[in-house]
Amino acid sequence: MRIFGRTGRAFAVLLAATAVLATGCGSDDSAKSASGPEQLVGLLRFTAGTANGSAVTGTWFRMVQPGGTPENGPYMPNGDSPAQGGSTTLLEPGTAGGLRVGGYQSEPNPSFAQGNSLAASITKPTKFFAVEFGTSTNAVDPQTQRAVPPPTVTDTDGKLTADLSAWAASWNDQEFNQGAPKPPEKQGAQVAGAEQVQKAWDWVAQRWFDRPSSDAAQGPSATGTYDPKTRAFTLQWTSLIVGGPFNGFTGVWHLEGVYEPDAAGSPATTPRSTGR
Description:
About 10% of the residues lie in helices and about 35% in strands. By secondary structure, the protein is mainly beta. Strands 1, 2, 5, 6, 7, 8, 13, 14, 19, 20 and 21 form an eleven-stranded antiparallel sheet that branches. Strands 11-12-15-16 form a four-stranded antiparallel sheet, with no helix packed on it. A hairpin with a 4-residue loop joins strand 19 and strand 20 (about 230-240).
């Protein structure tokens, strides 16, 4: 009886321990499933675009001709690109290594030299019809003169949505908003609203800009994928080109690389109140 008594108590302890472990595992799963969307703040470090035969990987740009589709074109061939018969322009990381999320990477001043863009922080200036184009993100969009928020990216269980309304391309002394969603067309310079409560850091100008409390951008956002284990990401979107020789064409942007979170204490992680 003594043996059976000890065995019974041991069995009871084992059942209790199993119940505790089961309860613990259930809590973890619940916590994971209830984690919700997460804002990514840091650097989206780009993988340079490469072509292997007809296959293209990494970061690239295409221009869809009017009436075409992003999936099937027809695309405007870039005579300076060897990828896919010129239909795809391969992009390389700029001096910052890629896109800063949560802050701006504005155009330098001056913005051009003989038509070539000098915006080199996000992507390396790349030839398009013999003239180099660059990309930037600015507190006030250079083409529409609209106040736009800094890029934001949200991860929801591996699916990314991004506000890249500040994404701008500059080429041949001309400015083109290529964001998603897209700010309205130019209607005169906009002044930041009185409700602004935070500021966003510009990694190129090394200064703070007011972050609009809301924006009037319209249309779909950029979307993509994110692997939290490897931090590999993709982002892609389309944006209508307004003005210039390619008016009515559509830009297709594809970003690919690895996300690097900002360290605590960096400018982008310490937004300041304006006190208003």
